[in-house]
Structures are given as structure tokens and as C-alpha cells.
Automatic annotation (TrEMBL), chain A:
GO biological process, one term: phosphate ion transmembrane transport
NCBIfam families in the record: 3a0107s02c
Name of the protein in its database record: Phosphate transport system permease protein PstA
SUPFAM superfamilies tied to this protein: MetI-like
Membrane topology listed for this record: Multi-pass membrane protein
Location of the ABC transmembrane type-1 domain: 343-555
GO molecular function, one term: phosphate transmembrane transporter activity
Subcellular location: Cell membrane
Domain of life: Archaea
Key words of the record: Cell membrane, Membrane, Transmembrane, Transmembrane helix, Transport
GO CC terms of this entry: plasma membrane
Source organism (scientific name): Haloarcula argentinensis
Automatic annotation (TrEMBL), chain B:
SMART domains: AAA
Species the sequence originates in: Haloarcula argentinensis
Record domain ABC transporter: where: 54-294
InterPro entries the record matches: AAA+_ATPase, ABC_transporter-like_ATP-bd, ABC_transporter-like_CS, P-loop_NTPase, PstB-like
UniProt protein name: Phosphate ABC transporter ATP-binding protein
Residue spans of biased composition, Low complexity class: 10-27
Amino acid sequence: MATREPETGWHGENSDVNHLRGRAFEATCLAATAFGLVSVMLLLLFVANDAFRPFSADAGWLATYAATVVVPLAALAVYYYRLDEPAGEVAYVTSGLPVVGLLLTGGFAVLFIELLSVLEWFALLISLVVAGGLIVAHGRLRPKAALERLAVVLLAPIITVFGLPPTRFNWFVTDAAAALGLDFGLYYRVISLREAILMLPFVPTDWVMLLLTLVLPIAGAAGWFVEQRRESRRDGLTVVGLTTAVAVLGVVAGPLLGIGTDVWLLIVTFAVLPLGVYVEGVLRRGEGVRGLAFPVVAVLGVVVGGVVTGALGFAGPDPWLDWGFLTSATSRTAADAGIYPAMVGSVMMIIVIVLTTFPVGVGAAIYLEEYAPSQGLMGKFVTLIEINIGNLAGVPSVVYGLLGLALFIRVLQWPQGSIIVAGLAVGLLILPIVIISAQEAIRSVPDSFRQASYGMGATRWQTIRQVVLPEALPGILTGTILALGRAIGETAPLLMIGAAASVRLAPNSFFDVASMMPRQIFSWSSELDPSFRHGVLAAGVITLLAVLLVMNATAIVIRNRYQRTG
Amino acid sequence: MTENEMTSNDSTEPTPTTETAASSPDPSGDPLIEQSIDVEGTDATAGETGKPVIESSDLNVFYGETQALQSIDLAIPEKQVTAMIGPSGCGKSTFLRCINRMNDLIDAARVEGDLYFEGKNVYDADVDPVALRRRIGMVFQHPNPFPKSIYDNVAYGLRIQDQTENIDEKVETALKRAALWDEVKDQLDKSALDLSGGQQQRLCIARAIAVDPDVILMDEPASALDPIATSKIEDLIEELAEEFTVVIVTHNMQQAARISDKTAVFLTGGELVEFDDTDKIFENPDSQRVEDYITGKFG
Ligand SMILES: Nc1ncnc2c1ncn2[C@@H]1O[C@H](COP(=O)(O)OP(=O)(O)OP(=O)(O)O)[C@@H](O)[C@H]1O
Ligand SMILES: [Mg+2]
């Protein structure tokens, strides 16, 4: 076969085509990226080293765990990556699910310890369910009465959860009851279902209430999901039955193992149940079964490592960030200092922010995108408002702190440094961000969907409710979670509104004075004792970053899940 | 046109075409009720050229400063197929959108003049565009199914208009009439966005006819379809014209000639050059420009 000789040299690089500038530009961009990443990584490593102090351990300890945990897991990871990708996915999920589940467990445990008794939770949930039932029943009975429905939707939860303020009628009822010798002490108001449950003379024990309100609903949902997926009623029922059985078993066996029954129930619902359903699915499908080795090896490695180091007498490291740090309050001595009350403060602040900022921000975004006029004088006004929302997103956070101080503390006379004030001040700070990202999400819903809906004779409300919001929701949630990540790390507004530098007891009401994580970290940074400034501070920073990471990961998961459409 | 004969409760029954209550403008009239009344009534006028159900007089549309339609006078007869042809950008879609007031959604659009539907000017202040659009369905130039399941797409209009009785049957009938049922009957839960472009367009047709409107506006419904699906859609259109008024925009001359009773020719600049019986337009148009356009000398 004769090789052809090109007649002209058009095909190679010559003076016509010059890649040099392009290559140089590419290299510069790469260098910038690498520089940024490496410096952030170095900083994080530095802080993590301070927080965990791995090198305070004996060399033998490190070597043992390297041999029992790190090396086997690394080998497995390489194997999955090279040879068995589905197994890698299984390994990823089976290791991640318990972690997320235990985090949720921790969250609920904090909720029950600090905020609500189990009875209060029970009463609240039952009231909400009854309210939901009322709304559904009304929808069934009178599907056409739109205004009435609005009233029911708004009033039913309020009445079941909060009751009604005093009115003439209640006076009459209370007086009449008192005259008959039945003095309920109702203060002339209609008590809510929630309060009625709280007043019951007999209540079930805590674990029964938890079983009813938490374990069974979630197990039921999981069972329903399995039933849908496999189209087998039996499998669904099996899930519910097994979960309940394991939960009840734990209630009996738990005290023997030293685990509180409540905690056990939480672990079953949030960690054991999802893991069980997933593992069973993997085994049944038979795809990537080898991935299950990963968590098994991890647990075995830790156990074996513990036995070996114990037998040989190797001392482990003495990290600043340990269980004690997460569960105790700050203290005068660095070794005893912890972040627990500040963590609870941060969580409660986030609750305030979510409850206030999310509805206001999303509502504003819907108005601006779907209702606001875009023409004429009003249109100009709306544009002005939108520009200013953009500007507000850039206002320094100290200014929001000042606003919170002036508005909530000076004018409304709310307690200085309380959680509600902190939540509202930081909520105002992220409000523009929530509005803008929600607007973006709503705007990204193609106009052709709206046209299709209007063309079918849908009203504006129906179009928003049925077409626009379902499409925009993932985007709205992602934006909001990212904004919440910003909120949880804000320090300046907390300083301005006088959040406590450090508190010994976790807050248990939204009007309590509290500290939040960044505020606590900031006050550690000015301690004289260097072990505060290096050790405890680093541990606090890592905790905060871990919370942020979890929130951002959630946002990313939501985004990826729903990205397909569009 | 055989499948639909199975459903007896809706207006797809092959009853003789009759003059409907549309002659007396009765805005509260439900198409189903009208139909059942008509059956009892006289059918003497069947087959006669429908009287106009949509009439425009001196209709001008502007997008900002530019005028897209110039003083259009047009009377679209009831229960017939009216085709609109003309070169790209001459305002066919714009005119279609005037009929069900979809131009309201375009900020820049401004409509002047009158357009009557069943004797009522749709641009009167007391007309609710939502009520208007429930009687005038529309199929858009580009397929635009919702990102929902196939079933939910067809059921959408039924649900928002509270016609939820026998909803499964209505969905099935609509899909059958749009010649899509056989392809999707096993996967009604699948996302509509996973369908091919032509299937999506037929889904949009099914969605529009599911609610039994009085008038159906179709903006190039067959532009994304293969010849077989196209001929099914053409059959559907002819069948629909027995009960509904159909207005269709098309770039396909043969299609217009095949299926329409009346043809309106728009030419660049947004003027209506000629409007007459389809046979007349294609065989012996009054205007030289129309003849040039139809014979391809000018486009
Ligand atoms: N939303 C809009 N904003 C501004 N101008 C528009 C808009 N829609 C259409 N126009 C203009 O109005 C004129 C008529 O457009 P129209 O879409 O009605 O044409 P058409 O006859 O449907 O064309 P085609 O056959 O290509 O679909 C065009 O010149 C177009 O540029
Ligand atoms: Mg068009």
C-alpha cells in the first residue's frame, strides 16, 4: 500500500494557525485555579490538624489504624474505582446513609432535649394532623368554595395549635362552666387541641408517643415507597413490620445496652431503616454487592484497631474536637470547653430564619416575577425595587446588625441578644439573596409552559400553583439552602445585637439570650490562653464548616436530582 | 374515526351537524349541554355554510412601534376548517393569538379594533380571558407539553376546569383522537418530555381537545410530524370540524387545500390579501399576488 505524500503543508501548525497565545492563556487560568484551591486546602489542613491533633498519638497507634482502617479502605476504593463502579456507588451510599441518619438523629435528639418534651411534640403533631385532615375534608366536601378554603387553610392549624383569643362568647362559656363548678382555668379563651392534649390526665409513655408519631409514619412512608417500586404489597408491609419490630425490640433491649429508648427509636427510623431498605435492594438486584464490603471493613477495622491498640497500650490522640467538645458548654479551661449551647443557638436561629425568610422571600419573588407589571410607570417602579433588592444583597452585614439593633431591640423592646432577634436580623440579611435566587429559579421556567397553561384556560393562580412552582421549587430550595449556609456563618450582626459571648446552658425558648457558633468562635479567638486560640477555636471552626458542608451537599443533591427536566 | 364511537357520554358521537346555541350568544353555555339540546332541536340547516362565529373588524396589532397586522376584517364560519397561509412573519400566529387573547401575555403587544366571538367583543372590559380560553383551545407552533406525565398533561385542562368526572375515559378518548394512544397506552406515567417532537405535538393536540372547546386554534400542528402522523392529524381535523370550529395555520399549501373550507391569505406586512372559499383561492384567486404566492413565484 503506497503511503500518500501530502502535496502542501496546510495540515500542520504554521503561521496561519497560532495556538501559542491560547496555550499561554490556558496555563495562566490553570495556575490561578491551582493557586486558589491549594491555598484553601492548606488552610483547611492547618485548621483540621489543630482540631484533631493526629500527631499527639503514639506512632504505634497511628500505624495500627493505618494498617487496619486506612490501607484496606484505600485498597477497596482503588478496586471499586478501577474495576467495579456500581460497587463503588453502593459503598458510597452505604457509608453515607448512616452518617446522614445519625446526624438527623442528633438533630432530633437535641430537639427533644432542649426545645420540646416528647409530649409537646406529640401534641403538636396530632394537632397539625387534625388540621390537615380538616383541610382535606373541607376540600372534599366543598371543592368549589375558594374563599372558604383559604379561611380553613389559614385558621385550622391556628385553632388546633394555638386556640382562639378571648371573645365575648368564650367569656360566656367559661363563666357558665365556672358557675357549674367546672373551672378549667381557661382564661376566657378557646384552648387549642394541642393544649388539650397537654392537659390530659393520662398520657402514653414517651416511647409509645415516639413510636406513633415518628417511627410508624416514616416506616409507613418507606413501606409505601417500597410497595410502589416493587408492586408488591407484601414487601411494603414487611418493611413496616420489621421496622416496628426492631424498634420495639430496642425499647426492651436498649436499657441493657445503655442506650436511651428515645435515642434508639430515632436511630432506627433515621439510620437503620433507610440503610436496611437500601441494602436489601442491593442484595436483591445483585448489582454492586461487593460495595457492601466497604462499611463492613470500616467497622471491622475500627474494632480490630481498638483491640490491638488497647492490647499493646498505644495512646490515641487527644483531639480538641471530640464528643465532649460537641456535647458540653464552654468553660474556663480549654480542655473542658465545648460548643453545644452555641450549636443549639445556631439551630434555633436557623429555625427562625427559615420560618420567616423563606415564605417572605419566595412570596416576594413570585410577586415580582409573575404578577408585577413590567410596563408603564408601575413597571418602572418595580424595576427600581428589583435594582434595590440587588443592592441590598450587597450591603455589609454590620449594617443589618445595626438595623436589627434599632428595630427589634430599641423600637420593639425585645430582649437583647435573644434568638428571635438574631434570627430576624440575619434573616433580613439573607432575604435579598433568597428573593434573587428564587426569582432566578422562577424565571428559568420556560415561558412556553406558562403559555400552554394559560392557553388551556388556567387562571394565573392555577398556572403558578400547578406549573411554575413545581418546576421552580428545586431551584428555590437550592438557593435558599445556600443562603442559609451564609446565614449560619454570619458574625457581625450577632455582635451588633448583643448575642451572648458564651453561655453555659443551651437556650430553650426563642426569647432566651443565646450564643451562636460564629459568636462563640469569635469570643474564643480573644481568650488569653493560647490553647483556646489554637485548639478550641480550630475545633469550633471545623464544626461550623462541617455543618456548612452538610447543608451545601444537601443543596447539590437536590439540584442534581431535579436537573434532568429543562 | 372509529375509536371515539365507543364513548357515548361526550359530544364525539356522530350526530348530524346542527346549528348550535352559538347563534344566541350564551356565555354560560356548556358545550356538552348545548350539544344535547341541539339533538332534540331541528337539524334542517345541517350542511349549510356556517354563520360566522369569530369576526374581526378593523383589527390592528402593534408590537411596540411596529405594526404586525393591518386592519384585518375576517369572518370565520362555524364548524368549518379555516386555513391561514402566508409567508413567514406575516402575522398568522399573531392573528391566532388575538382570537383567544394570548397576546395579553406579551407585554409589547397592543391590539386595536374589534374581535367578536359569538357576538361578544372579546376585547370588552368585562370579558375574562380565562373564560374565553376555556372555550377556545390552542395548539402552539412549537410543542410545549408540561414537564409532567403524559396522563397529567392531558388531564391538566380537565382538572383546572373541574371536569374531573370520568377523567380516565376522557384522557383515553383524547389520546385516541390525536392518534397517540397506541404509542403511549402502556406508559401514561412517563414524562411527556421523553416523547419525540412529533409525539409531543400530538400530545398537545390531545391536551387541547380533551376539554371539548368550541373552537380550536392550531398553529402549524403538523410541522414536526411525519407523513403518516400528518395524515392522521388531517383526518382528525376534518372530523373535529363536524363539531368544532377549527382555525389552522399552515405552510403546506396542499394541506390547506386538502382540509380547509375557507382560506385566508396573509402577505408580508400583516395585511389580509384575500379570504374566500378554499377552492376559489387555489383555483382562481382574485389577487395576482395571491396567485404568485400560491404558485411559488413569491414567498
Ligand atoms: N413577541 C413579539 N414581540 C415583538 N414582535 C413580534 C413578536 N411576535 C411576533 N412579532 C413580529 O410580528 C410579526 C408577525 O409575527 P408572527 O409570529 O405572527 O408571524 P407568522 O406569520 O406566524 O410567521 P411564521 O410562519 O414564521 O410562524 C413578525 O414580524 C414578528 O417579528
Ligand atoms: Mg407563526
